[in-house]
Design brief:
It is a single chain. This protein is an alpha+beta fold and 562 residues long. Helix content is 63%, strand content 8%. The strands form three sheets. Strands 1, 2, 3, 4 and 6 form a five-stranded antiparallel β-sheet that branches. Strands 5-10-9-7 form a four-stranded mixed β-sheet, covered by helices on one side. A two-stranded antiparallel sheet has the order 8-11. Helix 13 packs antiparallel against helix 19. The protein is globular and about 70 Å long.
Length: 562
C-alpha cells in the first residue's frame, strides 16, 4: 500500500518502517548467525550478494514512497562505501536526486503563511517549476521586488520552502529509527562495534537542524566567513528579509554542476584540474577549519567561471545547501591530522595509532594484526589512483580480504560523535573527484596537504615548547623566594628548630634545591633561545648564552659547605 506522507497517517507510516526493519533483521540473523552455527556458512556466503541487492532495492522503493527521513537514511547508506558492499551503495545512489516534487499550490500556501504576505507582494515573479525537490524541502527560482533588490543588490534568488507536514513526518521517522536502534543495541554483533542509539541521536540532531532554515542561513554565513579570503570558494548571500524558519531566500548562484563534464569543457575548464582543488577545499574544512559541508554531492557544488579571476584559474567552487553541516572538535581534528599524515607516509602503524586517538578504536583493543594488515595494504595498493585500482586483479582484493577480514571484524570499532558526517563528507568527496577524473589519485592531493600539516604541527610544537620554556623559567625564577619564605617560616614559626643535624640537613636541602632550580633555568633558557632564534636571532642567541650561568651554578654550587 502506498503511503502518502502529506496524508498524516503517522501510525501506518510508523508501522511500515518497523515491519521493514524487523523483517530484514530477522533475515540477516537467520543467514549470518544461525546458518554458520549449524555448519551452513557457505549457503550464507553464496547468497549474500543477492540478498544485499534485494534489501537495497526494497529500501529504495520504501524511501521514495515514504520520503521524509527515509531518503536521508538511504543517502547515508549510499555513502558508506567503507563498510557496505557495492550491491547496497550502488542501488541507493539514485536517492540523491530522485524525490517527487510537491504541487506548487501547496508550496505557495506554505511560503505565504511563513512570510505573512502573498508571493506577488514579496517577489516580482516566482517560477512554479522547481529547481530542486529534496526530501525535506523544495526550491524555486524567483526575482526580488524592486525595494528588496535595491536594499540587497540582488535580483535573481532561489526560494527554498519546506515540504508541508514535514515536521510530523520527521517526528514519526525518528521515533521509528529510535525503536530500531533499540533492537540493534541488543544484537551483540552490532553493539560491540557501534552505539546504535547514539548514532540515531546524532542523525536526529542533524535532521532537526536541517529543517530549521534560520540555522542553515547562519551556517552559510559562517562557512562564507571561513573562506572570505579564499579565491577558490564562493557562497550565496542570504536575503534575511525574506527568510524564516521554514522559508529560505538566497542569491541564485546556479552555474555548472561540478560533474557536468560537457559543460565544463564548453567553458574551457579541465575537470582534471577541478578535482584536486575540490579535494583540497574539503581537506581545509575538515582538518583546518573544523566546520565542514557534510553533504557535498554533485548537486550542491557548482563550478562558476570567473574570467577576471586574479589567480588566473578562471573559475571557483560555489557551495550551496548548508542544512547538513558538521563540526570537528579540536581533539578529533588533531587525530584526523595524524591519520592524514600517516596515510600520506604509508605508515600503517601510525594510521592505527591515529585511529585510536580519534576514538575509532577502543583504547583496550589489540591492534598488532591490524597494523600488519595496514602495512601490507599500503605496500600493495597505497598510491594507486582509481583507474589503476580498477585494473588490479579482483582476486588480489579477495585474497587480502580473506587474509585480514577476520582481524578487522574482530576489532572493537566504534564511531565517535559526529564521525558519521565526517565519513559521509569524505566518501562523497572521493566519489566526486573520481567522477571528475577517472585517473585521479587521492594520494597526489593528500601528500602535499599532509606535508603542510606536518610543517604546521612542527611550528605549533615549537611554539608550545617556547611557551613552556618561558613558563618554566618564570617558575624557576620564583622558586628561590618561595624556598626562602619556607625556611623563614620554619625558623620563625611555632615549631622551633634547634637540632644542629636538622639544620645541616635543611642547608643541604636548600643547596640541592638551588642546584635543581639552576638546572631547570638552564634548560628553560636554552630551549627558549633555540625556539626564538628562528624569528629573532639576537634575542635567541642572548638567551642561549645566558643559559651558561645557571649551568655553571648547577654543576659547582654543591661543592661548597659539604
Amino acid at each position: 500500500m502506498r503511503v502518502n506522507p502529506a496524508a498524516g497517517d503517522t501510525r501506518a507510516r510508523y508501522r511500515r518502517i518497523l515491519r521493514f526493519a524487523g523483517w530484514n533483521l530477522a533475515v540477516t540473523w537467520f543467514y549470518e548467525l544461525l546458518l554458520p552455527r549449524i555448519g551452513l556458512a557457505r549457503v550464507a556466503e553464496r547468497t549474500r550478494a543477492k540478498r544485499m541487492r534485494r534489501f537495497a532495492q526494497r529500501f529504495h522503493v520504501l524511501a521514495v514512497e515514504l520520503g521524509g527521513l527515509m531518503i536521508k537514511v538511504g543517502q547515508f547508506l549510499s555513502s558508506r562505501l567503507d563498510v557496505l558492499p557495492p550491491e547496497i551503495t550502488s542501488e541507493l545512489e539514485g536517492l540523491q536526486d530522485e524525490v517527487p516534487p510537491v504541487a506548487f499550490a501547496a508550496i505557495r500556501a506554505r511560503a505565504e503563511a511563513e512570510l505573512g504576505m502573498p508571493l506577488e507582494r514579496a517577489f516580482t515573479s516566482v517560477d512554479e517549476t522547481p529547481v530542486a525537490a529534496a526530501s525535506l524541502g523544495q526550491a524555486h527560482r524567483a526575482r526580488l521586488a524592486p525595494l528588496d533588490a535595491a536594499d540587497t543588490g540582488l535580483h535573481g534568488v532561489v526560494i527554498k520552502v519546506q515540504r508541508p507536514g514535514i515536521d510530523a513526518i520527521v517526528d514519526v521517522d525518528l521515533a521509528a529509527l529510535r525503536r530500531v536502534s533499540g533492537w540493534l543495541s541488543h544484537v551483540r554483533l552490532v553493539s560491540d562495534r557501534v552505539d546504535a542509539p547514539a548514532l540515531v541521536e546524532e542523525f536526529a540532531q542533524t535532521c532537526l537542524e536541517e529543517i530549521d532554515y534560520l540555522h542553515e542561513a547562519a551556517s552559510a554565513v559562517r562557512f562564507a566567513e571561513d573562506f572570505a579570503d579564499d579565491e577558490r570558494v564562493s557562497v550565496p548571500e542570504i536575503v534575511w528579509e525574506r527568510t524564516t524558519r521554514r522559508v529560505l531566500t538566497l542569491e541564485d548562484v546556479t552555474a555548472i554542476k561540478i560533474t557536468d563534464a560537457d559543460a565544463l569543457a564548453t567553458a574551457g575548464i579541465d575537470p582534471a584540474q577541478v578535482a584536486p582543488v575540490f579535494a583540497a577545499v574539503m581537506f581545509d574544512q575538515l582538518f583546518t577549519n573544523g566546520f565542514f559541508h557534510a553533504d557535498p554531492h554533485p548537486g550542491n557544488i557548482f563550478v562558476t567561471p570567473t574570467p577576471n579571476d586574479p589567480s588566473g584559474r578562471g573559475w571557483r567552487l560555489t557551495f550551496i545547501d548548508f542544512g547538513m553541516m558538521g563540526e570537528v572538535p579540536t581533539s578529533t581534528r588533531r587525530g584526523l591530522r595524524k591519520m592524514l599524515i600517516a596515510a600520506a607516509s604509508r605508515d600503517g602503524k601510525g594510521l592505527v595509532e591515529a585511529a585510536r586517538d580519534v576514538g575509532v578504536l577502543l583504547p583496550s583493543s589489540d591492534t598488532t594484526e591490524l597494523e600488519r594488515a595496514m602495512t601490507q595494504l599500503f605496500a600493495r595498493f597505497g598510491g594507486m589512483g582509481f583507474a589503476e585500482l580498477r585494473e588490479v586483479d579482483p582476486r588480489e582484493f579477495r585474497d587480502f580480504a580473506l587474509q585480514f577480514g577476520d582481524v578487522v571484524r574482530s576489532l572493537p570499532f566504534q564511531l565517535p560523535e559526529n564521525f558519521l558526517l565526517i565519513i559521509r563528507a569524505m566518501s562523497l568527496t572521493s566519489g566526486v573527484c573520481s567522477s571528475l577524473d577517472p585517473a585521479f589519485n587521492l594520494w597526489d592531493s593528500i601528500e602535499p596537504y599532509a606535508s603542510q600539516l606536518l610543517r604546521d604541527e612542527r611550528g605549533n610544537v615549537a611554539q608550545d615548547l617556547g611557551k613552556q620554556a618561558l613558563e618554566n623559567a618564570g617558575i624557576a625564577w620564583g622558586l628561590p623566594k618561595r624556598l626562602d619564605g619556607l625556611v623563614t617560616r620554619l625558623e620563625d614559626g611555632t615549631v622551633a628548630v634547634a637540632n644542629p643535624g636538622l639544620e645541616r640537613r635543611v642547608a643541604r636541602l636548600e643547596r640541592s634545591t638551588a642546584r635543581v632550580v639552576s638546572a631547570v633555568l638552564f634548560g628553560a633558557l636554552l630551549i627558549a633561545g633555540a625556539v626564538l632564534r628562528a624569528d629573532d636571532a639576537v634575542l635567541g642567541a642572548v638567551l642561549m648564552i645566558g643559559s651558561v650561568i645557571p649551568l655553571i651554578h648547577a654543576l659547582f654550587a654543591g661543592a661548597r659547605g659539604r
